[in-house]
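Most newcomers find our protein records easier to grasp once they have seen one. A record pairs a protein's sequence with a compact description of its fold. An example says more than a description, so a record of this kind follows:
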Amino acid sequence: MSETIMFADLALSEPVMRAIQKVGYEQPSPIQAAAIPVLLAGGDILGMAQTGTGKTAAFALPLLSRIDTKQADPQILVLAPTRELAIQVAEAFQKYASEIPGFHVLPIYGGQDMTSQLRSLKRGAHVVVGTPGRVMDHLRRGSLNLNNLKALVLDEADEMLRMGFIDDVEWILEHTPKTRQTALFSATMPREIRHVCNNYLNNATEIKIASSQSTDANIEQVYWMVSGTNKLDALTRILEVEPFDGMIIFVRTKTATVELAEKLEARGYSAAALNGDMNQQLRERTIERLKTNKLDIVIATDVAARGIDVERVSHVVNYDIPYDSEAYVHRIGRTGRAGRSGKAILFVAPREKRLLYTIEKATKKPITLMELPSGATVTKHRIDQFTQQITDTLKEQSDLSFFNDLLAEFSHKNDVSPEEIASALAYLLQRERPLQVKFTDVKPERERSSRDERGGRDDRGSRDRGPREDRPRRERSDENMDRYRIEVGRNHEARPGDIVGAIANEAGIESRFIGHIKLHDEFSTVDLPTGMSKDILAKLKKVRVRNRPLEISLDTGPRGGDDFSRKPKRDFGPREGGRDKPRFGERDGKKTSFRPKKSD
């Protein structure tokens, strides 16, 4: 067996290592272990690996280790196929560079205000992450200076080919220094991508990560889309009603194991952390407690859970979705042992849908949407447990005469019925864990077709061809939508595409779930799914469109200025011969698919 490689073995810079330790990462994924040494040495690489294998850290960590913050011009350029991926990669760079003083990363993509991008580029950025169309715009303007570029990364090259960007990519490569270091990542290797490698990479090291993972048929796999309710709330609901024996909950960091264990213990669950900071003796003791029913829940990182073989583990919860589909297979393999059935539950945030798609593709098995237990379901479950306790006590305790006499005397002295006394005692008994549970139930996203689009939109061309102002983006029921007012309008040069992009990026709401948009002079209205959480609304209040905060609020009708109807208007055209003209979404009486046009 080969020796396990840890991040500490990879010769990364001290600031980068401190950032890794701060977030609690311990062991690199296969693509990271293979790519980091080559990139640290200045070599080119051709990485063939699926999305979700940890590619971002594979190139970000070594390139950050070689960055010079004294040089203000961009030293690293990352090309990504979609604005969503560009934002994710930029956020990852910021996280991994948290211990590098004065570091700046800038995402640039279509649909974002060009003026703010120009201002940011003028101030300087060490790393630029962008979509091909917008990078080309800045190169033509002369606002993006790549004379001092040290490294260029092509992320998801096959996606850029599929979306028609490959010519743009080659144009950008022609306008970068020949001395640059190049890293190209692609899940597949079509002829056009191989052509780019042959022409623009220099003696590249090929790294191929196999994706032939499979999962046991006796493991039921479900996911919950964490939207509008937080993970801890969802987890506690599941723990309330899901009959489990032993459970392992996986998180990404060592810190998270301790924090989640403490929160579950505070809620009355027998839980403990398991991470790499614990000595071997303590880790073994924790696993032994799980085996001997002295512990029900273990919260672990991937490294700490390696080798756990406990038959009573009936459930695995991926509290944090793994970046690596191979890690997912290893995680859920902790259940379903010795021919038993098991259940794997996966929590997925809206921005993590790409990882869900990748896991399904790699394991060749669908993961079905689960129903989060409602407040009524949890209440019923608690009542059933409570009444069962009463039944068991009556069966087990043959002599309750002392208590019968005590309560009979109390009933006589205070002139209260036995039912009233029983009610008071029941209230006292359940006070710490109320039988009546009140949750704000939020419906999960049920539509999953967007995962087939791999979570992204073509960034080229979103400048002038967004959804028309008075046209519904998608035929849908207004019953599931609320109308919101945002404080940006025509006079601020706002366009529907700007609004869609801002809401989709910040709230994690796919563009197809964003309804009717109506622009007015000083404000606009937008229809959004019913049940938006306070956290999402608070975040959207601060989001800026055309350099103005949205200040989103539930629409309550006209407020000085524009006169408009609060009821969404649907333009069906004038009636001809007693029949409406075909509606948007229909052609010659047949339904068609109208999607937002792509912009630049």
Notes: The chain is about 35% helix and 15% strand. The domain at 219-369 is CATH 3.40.50.300 (Rossmann fold).
